[in-house]
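Sharing a chain and its predicted structure for anyone who wants a worked example. Both blocks are below, sequence first, tokens second.
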Amino acid sequence: FWVIPAVEVKIEVVIPEKERSKEEMSPNGKASPLIYKVNGTARHYHLEEHPIASNPYHNPKDVVEASVCHVKDLENGQMREVDLGCGKALLIKESGEFHAVGHKCPHYGAPLVKGVLSKGRVRCPWHGACFNIGTGDIEDFPGLDSLPRFQVKIEKEKVYIRASKQALQTQRRTKMMAKCISLSNYNLSSTNVLIIGAGAAGLVCAETLRQEGFSDRIVMCTMDRHLPYDRPKLSKSMDSHPEQIALRPKEFFCTYDIEVLTEMQVAAVDVKSKIAVFKDGFKMEYNKLLIATGNTPKTLSCKGKEMENVFNIRTPEDANRVVKLATSKNVVIVGASFLGMEVAAYLAERAHSVSLVELEHVPFKKFFGERVGRAVMKMFESNRVKFYMQTEVSELREQEGKLKEVVLKSGKVLRADVCVVGVGAVPATGFLKQSGINIDSKGFIVVNKMMQTNIPGVFAAGDAVTFPLALRNNKKVNVPHWQMAHMHGRIAALNMLAHGTEISTVPYLWTAMFGKSIRYAGHGEGFDDVVIQGDLDELKFVAFYTKSDEVVAVASMNYDPIVSKVAEVLAAGRTIRKQTPHNTVVFLSFRTGDMSWLTGKGT
């Protein structure tokens, strides 16, 4: 058993009357679009298509075959990382059958052998991506690529794996996709599918359409100057250049005829005429529309907010410039948000000083709870980050046109050469106010389980939407996180093709600070209790968030893969309940590849 010390627990797992049908999963799309920038001319790239052969081992020199174990070496529900000489594979035994796939998660390279095996899929221990063990296909996100699948055979009680050397090296597989039939026949001002926004939701939508065989025109447009990139790295790895964090290379987009209009802003949408009007007057007709515009960072409202060296981190250029200006200088960060805290952690070793200003008395209080927030705060303080809590900025002062001081409402004056603002964001939906698309009081686009708006043919996804979350009894929620944006994009694409697929996924997120990560699964909004297992002072803990005795979310630090295990329980439609009598508390203990429950007495 995998056990957290010091606490005994009682668990009640409630299984629905009808086991929830497996949510339709298919590899997260990988798309290669045609790059197309509107600056008076259109540039079309047609790369030669190289079909994937039906026999993946058509080149004998690229094939390796090796005996990796005896058939009795693995029990059902077990996984083992095996070495084939020129690379490793993940060998899995489930229901008496052996399967072999890539051993690293294609997202960030996590070892899947340390993940969670459940009902025909393996879940990444780091960020929660899920892969079908029979096909290697990605079934939940983040990430774009699937796992390579290898042939397994049994001879004389020995297990053999036959694999492509190239696949063993790359540890990833891009699903086959269709191409546009004939772009030359299209009017530049019309498209079958228009995607507004080129983040994770927009890209996955485009890739999924191609994966499902859609061969009509797809156009993505973005206010950004870059092709889609790994936005979470803007605050976690701030000196990364755009090409280093690109989700797909330019050639990929060209190969699969996904057009990208960069530095193009949609100013209005006429849903009756099915026309998007751009800020520069350009108009484009569409048949199906996806709105995935994300959010817009909030700015300060005080005097001096427009001053030089005051930043909202929105682009790679923003992040790069902050790092350059902050080196050996004084940095003030406003807002102990995920972005603010990650930026503070990244700059702590580079800047002369890092000060963080926050209205609450503890970072992350509403999200992780006060006890976890205090533990994180203590970690930051031990790394030279100074907190100024329960106060706000009243003024930014300049000297010779550049930021010099940040004045707080408490009266404290902080020296500042750079100021980063991380006080939240609002949905980027202002251009839709007169469109007839249903927008709630906070500016979020309201969609159903199929990511459809109230307007036929118009879908929305990502940070700008509220949608029914099955995990919380279909309560309409906004989940502005990377994994969820991927899934939104996929569900929207499938329903553009009339698949009738409803979203059913467990939110999963992570934050990285000082080389440590907090993993989180579920939706803890409105939690009324937090049950802590482990040692907060040692930053080795699990926190269960409950509402009316039901576990609605879990967070952990240095206790992988507990969050992925809980995510699998929740994804299966089971309810975990805390038992309150006799000071018993909730805790999960799992047998590898299986889920077992311990009962005991609390401390």
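Comments welcome. The CA atoms of residues 127 and 509 lie 7 Å apart.
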